[in-house]
Amino acid sequence: MTDIVIYHNPACGTSRNTLALIRNSGAEPRIVEYLKTSPDRDELKSLLSRMGATVRDVLRQKGTPYEELDLGNLKWTDEQLLGFIGQHPVLLNRPIVVTPLGVRLCRPSEVVLDILPDPQQTPFAKEDGEVVIDAEGRRRV
Q1: CB contact at 8 A, 17 and 43
Q2: Is 79 a member of any domain?
Q3: Cα-based distances in Å from 29 to 1, 47, 80, 133
Q4: What's the structural domain count of the chain?
Q5: 12 assigned to active site
Q6: 139 occurs within a structural domain
Q7: CATH code: domain of residue 118
Q8: What is the pLDDT of residue 140?
Q9: Has residue 43 been placed in a domain?
Q10: Which domain holds residue 31?
Q11: pLDDT at position 2, please?
Q12: What is the pLDDT of residues 48-100, one digit of tens each?
């Protein structure tokens, strides 16, 4: 059983790169495809608390009903925003990764390196060819 969970969207390049970095550390995470199995309100609140984030910090705007719902309007409370995420899971930005070392919204994908318990096992390049871990095992910045 793994201690790593990724809230994942397989259609998202950042999410795929993050998953690949987790696997490159030798771990096989529990994958939650959040568009199919959305975290409930209490789970979201727990994730946000552990990240030290607000609901607005994890709202995704691009490719979502964010604008049409006027979610940038400060009239919406955190509870109301959580309700919108529950109705429209695509509003939750991704990927969110949980490890024994912390919880992070991994945008960009290499943010996951800060919370992985084990180092990368091999060099790693993102899908677009950007090198993240070089041949000597060093993180490229």
Answers
A1: no
A2: yes
A3: 9, 16, 31, 20
A4: 1
A5: yes
A6: no
A7: 3.40.30.10
A8: 86
A9: yes
A10: 5-133
A11: 67
A12: 999 999 999 999 999 999 999 999 999 999 999 999 999 999 999 999 999 99
